[in-house]
Amino acid sequence: MAWLMAILQTLLFIALAPLLSGWIKRVKCRLQNRKAPSLFQPYRDLRKLYRKQPIVPHPASWIFRAAPYIVFASTVLAAATVPLAAIHLPTARIADVIVLVGFFALGRMFLVLAGMDVGTAFGGMGSSREMTISSLAEPAMLMAVFTLAMSAHTTNLSQAVNFVLDTGLVLRPSFVFALGGLMLVAIAETGRIPVDNPATHLELTMIHEAMILEYSGRWLALIEWASQIKLMLYGVLIANIFFPWGIAQTFTVNALALGLGVITLKLAVLAVMLAVSEVLFAKMRIFRVQEYLSFAYLLSVLGMLSHIILEAAR
Amino acid sequence: MSLFLAGISVLAALLSALAALVSGPNGLLWHGMLRWVGQATFRPARTNERLTPGRFSRLARTMPFVLLGASGGFAVTAGLIALLGGATRTVTLPFGLPWLNWHLALDPLAGFFFCVLGIPLIAASLFGPGYVREFEHGKHKLSVLGLFTGLFVAGMELVLLANDAFLFMIAWELMSVASYFLVAYQHEHATHRRAAFLYLLMAEIGAIAIILAFGVLAGFSGGLTFEALRSAALNPLWASIAFALALAGFGMKAGLVPLHTWLPEAHPAAPSHVSALMSGVMLKIAIYGFIRFTFDLLPSLLWQWGVLVLLIGSASAVLGILYALQQQNLKRLLAYSSVENVGIIFTALGLALIFQSSGQSLLGTLGLVAALLHSLNHALFKSLLFLGAGAILHQTHEQSLENMGGLIHRMPKLAALFLIGTLSISALPPFNGFVSEWLIFQTALQAGSIQSGILRSLIPTASAVLALTSALAATCFVKVYGVAFLGLPRSRHIARAREIRHPGMLAGPALLAACCVLFGVLPMPLINALGALTQSLTGFVLPNISALGWLWLTPVSPEVAAYSPALVLLGTVAVGWLCYYLLYRRTGLEPRRAEPWDCGFGGLTPRTQYTSGSFSMPIRRIFEPVFDTRETVEEQTEGPASTRVTGLRYQFQVLDRAWAVLYEPSGRAVTRLARWVGRVQTGNIRTYLGYAFFTLIILLWVVS
Question: Which of A192, B273, B296, B465 could be disulfide-bonded to B314 (CB atoms 3.0-4.6 Å)?
Answer without folding.
Answer: B465
